[in-house]
Protein backbone atom coordinates (compact mmCIF):
# COMPACT_ATOMS: atom_id res chain seq x y z
CA UNK A 1 0.00 0.00 0.00
CA UNK A 2 1.44 3.38 -0.96
CA UNK A 3 1.97 6.12 1.58
CA UNK A 4 -0.88 8.22 0.17
CA UNK A 5 -3.30 5.32 0.66
CA UNK A 6 -2.07 4.46 4.13
CA UNK A 7 -1.77 8.03 5.40
CA UNK A 8 -4.68 10.44 4.86
CA UNK A 9 -2.43 13.42 5.59
CA UNK A 10 -0.01 12.31 2.88
CA UNK A 11 -2.97 11.94 0.51
CA UNK A 12 -4.07 15.46 1.39
CA UNK A 13 -0.60 16.86 0.80
CA UNK A 14 -0.36 15.08 -2.54
CA UNK A 15 -3.73 16.44 -3.63
CA UNK A 16 -2.80 19.98 -2.62
CA UNK A 17 0.49 19.70 -4.48
CA UNK A 18 -1.50 19.19 -7.67
CA UNK A 19 -3.04 22.67 -7.41
CA UNK A 20 -2.30 24.66 -10.54
CA UNK A 21 -1.80 21.59 -12.72
CA UNK A 22 -3.22 22.22 -16.19
CA UNK A 23 -4.58 19.32 -18.23
CA UNK A 24 -5.34 19.42 -21.94
CA UNK A 25 -9.08 19.25 -21.33
CA UNK A 26 -10.50 21.25 -18.42
CA UNK A 27 -12.30 24.49 -17.56
CA UNK A 28 -10.04 27.52 -17.08
CA UNK A 29 -10.88 29.39 -13.86
CA UNK A 30 -11.07 32.31 -13.94
CA UNK A 31 -11.66 32.30 -17.70
CA UNK A 32 -8.61 33.50 -19.59
CA UNK A 33 -7.58 33.46 -23.25
CA UNK A 34 -5.35 35.60 -25.44
CA UNK A 35 -7.33 35.29 -28.67
CA UNK A 36 -10.69 36.83 -27.84
CA UNK A 37 -11.96 39.80 -29.88
CA UNK A 38 -10.08 42.95 -28.83
CA UNK A 39 -13.19 44.68 -27.49
CA UNK A 40 -13.98 41.87 -25.01
CA UNK A 41 -13.15 42.87 -21.44
CA UNK A 42 -11.72 40.32 -19.05
CA UNK A 43 -14.76 40.73 -16.78
CA UNK A 44 -17.06 39.75 -19.66
CA UNK A 45 -15.23 36.50 -20.41
CA UNK A 46 -17.55 33.97 -18.74
CA UNK A 47 -16.48 30.55 -20.03
CA UNK A 48 -13.24 29.00 -21.21
CA UNK A 49 -13.01 25.23 -21.46
CA UNK A 50 -11.47 22.51 -23.57
CA UNK A 51 -13.88 19.59 -23.87
CA UNK A 52 -12.07 16.27 -24.06
CA UNK A 53 -12.56 13.68 -26.75
CA UNK A 54 -15.62 11.82 -25.48
CA UNK A 55 -16.36 14.59 -23.01
CA UNK A 56 -19.26 16.96 -22.45
CA UNK A 57 -20.02 20.39 -21.05
CA UNK A 58 -23.15 22.22 -19.90
CA UNK A 59 -23.47 25.94 -19.31
CA UNK A 60 -26.06 28.63 -18.77
CA UNK A 61 -25.48 31.67 -20.99
CA UNK A 62 -27.25 34.99 -20.69
CA UNK A 63 -28.96 36.78 -23.56
CA UNK A 64 -26.41 38.47 -25.80
CA UNK A 65 -23.56 36.13 -24.89
CA UNK A 66 -21.32 34.99 -27.73
CA UNK A 67 -20.28 31.34 -27.79
CA UNK A 68 -17.28 30.39 -29.89
CA UNK A 69 -16.51 26.73 -30.58
CA UNK A 70 -13.13 25.75 -32.06
CA UNK A 71 -12.24 22.39 -33.58
CA UNK A 72 -8.72 22.36 -32.19
CA UNK A 73 -7.27 19.39 -34.10
CA UNK A 74 -9.70 18.95 -36.98
CA UNK A 75 -11.74 15.99 -35.72
CA UNK A 76 -14.05 17.39 -33.03
CA UNK A 77 -17.78 16.69 -33.21
CA UNK A 78 -19.84 19.23 -31.26
CA UNK A 79 -23.38 17.93 -30.84
CA UNK A 80 -25.48 20.50 -29.00
CA UNK A 81 -28.79 20.80 -27.18
CA UNK A 82 -30.26 24.22 -26.34
CA UNK A 83 -32.91 25.07 -23.73
CA UNK A 84 -34.67 28.24 -22.59
CA UNK A 85 -32.84 28.59 -19.27
CA UNK A 86 -35.88 29.93 -17.42
CA UNK A 87 -38.37 27.48 -18.90
CA UNK A 88 -36.49 24.38 -20.10
CA UNK A 89 -39.65 22.82 -21.50
CA UNK A 90 -38.92 25.19 -24.39
CA UNK A 91 -35.97 23.84 -26.29
CA UNK A 92 -34.30 23.57 -29.68
CA UNK A 93 -36.58 22.21 -32.37
CA UNK A 94 -34.41 20.90 -35.18
CA UNK A 95 -37.37 20.26 -37.49
CA UNK A 96 -38.61 23.86 -37.21
CA UNK A 97 -35.04 25.18 -37.47
CA UNK A 98 -34.83 23.50 -40.88
CA UNK A 99 -38.41 24.02 -42.04
CA UNK A 100 -38.91 27.66 -41.11
CA UNK A 101 -35.65 28.75 -42.73
CA UNK A 102 -36.18 26.69 -45.90
CA UNK A 103 -32.65 25.37 -45.47
CA UNK A 104 -31.18 22.35 -43.71
CA UNK A 105 -27.55 23.41 -44.08
CA UNK A 106 -26.69 25.73 -41.24
CA UNK A 107 -24.05 28.44 -41.43
CA UNK A 108 -23.48 32.13 -40.80
CA UNK A 109 -26.77 34.03 -40.62
CA UNK A 110 -28.87 30.99 -39.73
CA UNK A 111 -30.92 30.58 -36.54
CA UNK A 112 -31.55 27.88 -33.96
CA UNK A 113 -35.29 27.96 -33.30
CA UNK A 114 -37.31 26.70 -30.35
CA UNK A 115 -40.49 24.67 -30.34
CA UNK A 116 -42.35 27.88 -29.46
CA UNK A 117 -41.30 29.85 -32.53
CA UNK A 118 -38.57 31.86 -30.84
CA UNK A 119 -34.94 32.19 -31.80
CA UNK A 120 -32.68 30.70 -29.13
CA UNK A 121 -29.33 31.36 -30.80
CA UNK A 122 -28.06 32.78 -34.08
CA UNK A 123 -24.91 31.89 -35.99
CA UNK A 124 -22.72 34.96 -36.48
CA UNK A 125 -19.56 33.44 -37.95
CA UNK A 126 -18.74 30.08 -39.50
CA UNK A 127 -15.54 29.03 -41.23
CA UNK A 128 -16.27 25.31 -40.90
CA UNK A 129 -19.37 24.92 -43.12
CA UNK A 130 -19.81 21.25 -42.28
CA UNK A 131 -22.71 20.87 -39.86
CA UNK A 132 -25.53 18.37 -39.47
CA UNK A 133 -29.22 18.93 -38.78
CA UNK A 134 -30.27 15.43 -39.90
CA UNK A 135 -28.56 12.61 -38.07
CA UNK A 136 -28.73 13.31 -34.35
CA UNK A 137 -26.11 11.73 -32.13
CA UNK A 138 -24.94 8.26 -31.17
CA UNK A 139 -26.37 6.17 -28.35
CA UNK A 140 -25.23 3.19 -26.31
CA UNK A 141 -26.72 0.69 -28.77
CA UNK A 142 -25.15 2.21 -31.88
CA UNK A 143 -21.74 2.39 -30.20
CA UNK A 144 -21.99 -1.15 -28.86
CA UNK A 145 -22.83 -2.42 -32.34
CA UNK A 146 -19.98 -0.55 -33.99
CA UNK A 147 -17.21 -0.45 -31.39
CA UNK A 148 -18.10 -3.36 -29.13
CA UNK A 149 -18.87 -1.24 -26.07
CA UNK A 150 -21.34 1.61 -25.75
CA UNK A 151 -21.47 2.08 -21.98
CA UNK A 152 -21.17 5.56 -20.52
CA UNK A 153 -18.22 4.51 -18.35
CA UNK A 154 -16.53 2.51 -21.10
CA UNK A 155 -13.93 3.50 -23.68
CA UNK A 156 -16.47 4.47 -26.36
CA UNK A 157 -19.13 6.72 -24.77
CA UNK A 158 -22.05 7.94 -26.85
CA UNK A 159 -23.37 11.42 -27.46
CA UNK A 160 -26.76 10.67 -25.92
CA UNK A 161 -25.27 9.43 -22.66
CA UNK A 162 -23.03 12.50 -22.47
CA UNK A 163 -26.13 14.64 -23.04
CA UNK A 164 -27.79 12.93 -20.10
CA UNK A 165 -24.89 13.82 -17.82
CA UNK A 166 -24.83 17.43 -18.97
CA UNK A 167 -28.59 17.87 -18.74
CA UNK A 168 -28.63 16.40 -15.23
CA UNK A 169 -26.40 19.24 -14.03
CA UNK A 170 -29.32 21.59 -14.71
CA UNK A 171 -32.02 19.40 -13.21
CA UNK A 172 -33.08 17.87 -16.52
CA UNK A 173 -33.62 14.19 -17.26
CA UNK A 174 -33.87 11.57 -19.95
CA UNK A 175 -37.08 12.95 -21.44
CA UNK A 176 -35.36 16.31 -21.93
CA UNK A 177 -32.70 14.98 -24.29
CA UNK A 178 -34.11 16.11 -27.63
CA UNK A 179 -32.81 15.96 -31.24
CA UNK A 180 -29.57 17.90 -31.56
CA UNK A 181 -27.59 20.01 -33.98
CA UNK A 182 -24.03 18.88 -34.68
CA UNK A 183 -21.24 21.28 -35.59
CA UNK A 184 -17.98 20.47 -37.44
CA UNK A 185 -19.31 17.20 -38.86
CA UNK A 186 -21.65 17.48 -41.81
CA UNK A 187 -24.25 15.43 -43.65
CA UNK A 188 -25.45 15.97 -47.20
CA UNK A 189 -28.66 14.60 -48.66
CA UNK A 190 -28.11 13.20 -52.14
CA UNK A 191 -30.62 13.28 -55.00
CA UNK A 192 -31.65 9.70 -54.26
CA UNK A 193 -32.25 10.50 -50.57
CA UNK A 194 -29.15 8.85 -49.15
CA UNK A 195 -27.13 10.66 -46.49
CA UNK A 196 -23.45 11.27 -47.16
CA UNK A 197 -21.53 12.04 -43.95
CA UNK A 198 -18.79 14.68 -44.08
CA UNK A 199 -16.58 13.76 -41.15
CA UNK A 200 -13.07 14.74 -42.19
CA UNK A 201 -10.62 14.95 -40.59
CA UNK A 202 -10.43 18.62 -41.51
CA UNK A 203 -7.87 21.36 -41.03
CA UNK A 204 -7.42 22.22 -37.34
CA UNK A 205 -8.70 25.48 -35.93
CA UNK A 206 -12.05 25.79 -37.70
CA UNK A 207 -14.55 27.77 -35.64
CA UNK A 208 -18.14 28.89 -35.30
CA UNK A 209 -19.54 31.80 -33.26
CA UNK A 210 -23.12 31.80 -31.98
CA UNK A 211 -25.06 34.52 -30.16
CA UNK A 212 -27.59 33.73 -27.44
CA UNK A 213 -30.88 35.46 -28.27
CA UNK A 214 -32.47 34.27 -25.01
CA UNK A 215 -31.09 33.11 -21.68
CA UNK A 216 -30.14 29.57 -22.62
CA UNK A 217 -28.67 26.34 -21.33
CA UNK A 218 -26.36 24.68 -23.83
CA UNK A 219 -25.27 21.07 -23.47
CA UNK A 220 -22.42 19.92 -25.72
CA UNK A 221 -21.26 16.35 -26.32
CA UNK A 222 -17.97 15.75 -28.12
CA UNK A 223 -18.32 12.17 -29.39
CA UNK A 224 -17.81 10.65 -32.86
CA UNK A 225 -20.55 11.33 -35.40
CA UNK A 226 -23.14 8.56 -35.49
CA UNK A 227 -22.49 8.03 -39.24
CA UNK A 228 -18.70 8.20 -39.04
CA UNK A 229 -17.58 5.43 -41.43
CA UNK A 230 -14.22 4.88 -39.74
CA UNK A 231 -13.80 1.66 -37.81
CA UNK A 232 -12.01 3.33 -34.91
CA UNK A 233 -13.76 5.53 -32.33
CA UNK A 234 -12.22 8.84 -33.42
CA UNK A 235 -12.71 12.34 -32.05
CA UNK A 236 -10.42 15.16 -30.84
CA UNK A 237 -10.76 17.97 -28.26
CA UNK A 238 -13.14 20.88 -28.68
CA UNK A 239 -12.64 24.36 -27.25
CA UNK A 240 -15.49 26.55 -25.96
CA UNK A 241 -15.15 30.26 -25.19
CA UNK A 242 -17.99 32.57 -24.22
CA UNK A 243 -18.20 36.27 -23.45
CA UNK A 244 -20.98 38.71 -22.65
CA UNK A 245 -22.17 40.96 -25.45
CA UNK A 246 -24.98 43.35 -26.30
CA UNK A 247 -28.49 42.17 -26.96
CA UNK A 248 -29.31 42.08 -30.67
CA UNK A 249 -30.40 45.56 -31.84
CA UNK A 250 -33.40 46.22 -34.11
CA UNK A 251 -31.19 46.93 -37.13
CA UNK A 252 -29.11 43.76 -36.83
CA UNK A 253 -28.60 42.18 -40.28
CA UNK A 254 -29.13 38.61 -39.05
CA UNK A 255 -32.36 39.64 -37.33
CA UNK A 256 -33.72 41.24 -40.48
CA UNK A 257 -32.38 38.84 -43.10
CA UNK A 258 -35.69 37.06 -43.76
CA UNK A 259 -39.36 37.53 -42.80
CA UNK A 260 -39.36 34.17 -41.04
CA UNK A 261 -36.27 35.00 -39.01
CA UNK A 262 -37.57 38.44 -38.09
CA UNK A 263 -40.76 36.86 -36.72
CA UNK A 264 -38.71 34.47 -34.57
CA UNK A 265 -36.75 37.42 -33.17
CA UNK A 266 -39.97 39.35 -32.52
CA UNK A 267 -41.39 36.34 -30.68
CA UNK A 268 -38.28 36.24 -28.48
CA UNK A 269 -38.39 39.98 -27.85
CA UNK A 270 -42.05 39.74 -26.89
CA UNK A 271 -41.10 37.06 -24.33
CA UNK A 272 -38.80 39.56 -22.57
CA UNK A 273 -41.46 42.25 -22.46
CA UNK A 274 -43.52 40.24 -20.01
Structure report:
The protein is α+β, with helices and mostly antiparallel strands. It has one domain (54-247, 254-272). The protein contains six helices and 13 strands. It has helices at residues 3-6, 8-17, 94-100, 140-147, 159-168, 259-272, and strands spanning 45-51, 56-61, 66-71, 78-84, 111-113, 119-126, 131-132, 181-183, 186-189, 195-198, 206-212, 216-222, 238-243. Strands 1-13-3-11-6-5 form a six-stranded antiparallel β-sheet. The chain has a five-stranded antiparallel β-sheet with strand order 2-12-4-8-7, covered by helices on one side. The chain has a two-stranded antiparallel ribbon with strand order 9-10. A hairpin with a 5-residue loop joins strand 5 (111-113) and strand 6. It is globular.
Task: Give the helix/strand layout.
Elements: H1 3-6, H2 8-17, E1 45-51, E2 56-61, E3 66-71, E4 78-84, H3 94-100, E5 111-113, E6 119-126, E7 131-132, H4 140-147, H5 159-168, E8 181-183, E9 186-189, E10 195-198, E11 206-212, E12 216-222, E13 238-243, H6 259-272
Antiparallel strand pairs: 1-13, 2-12, 3-11, 3-13, 4-8, 4-12, 5-6, 6-11, 7-8, 9-10
The termini sit apart by 63 Å
Sheet with most strands: strand arrangement: 1-13-3-11-6-5
Element pattern in H and E: HHEEEEHEEEHHEEEEEEH
Supply Rg. Answer: 20 Å
Summed up, what is this model?
With 274 residues, this protein is an alpha+beta fold. It has helices spanning 3-6, 8-17, 94-100, 140-147, 159-168, 259-272, and strands spanning 45-51, 56-61, 66-71, 78-84, 111-113, 119-126, 131-132, 181-183, 186-189, 195-198, 206-212, 216-222, 238-243. A hairpin with a 5-residue loop joins β5 (111-113) and β6 (119-126).
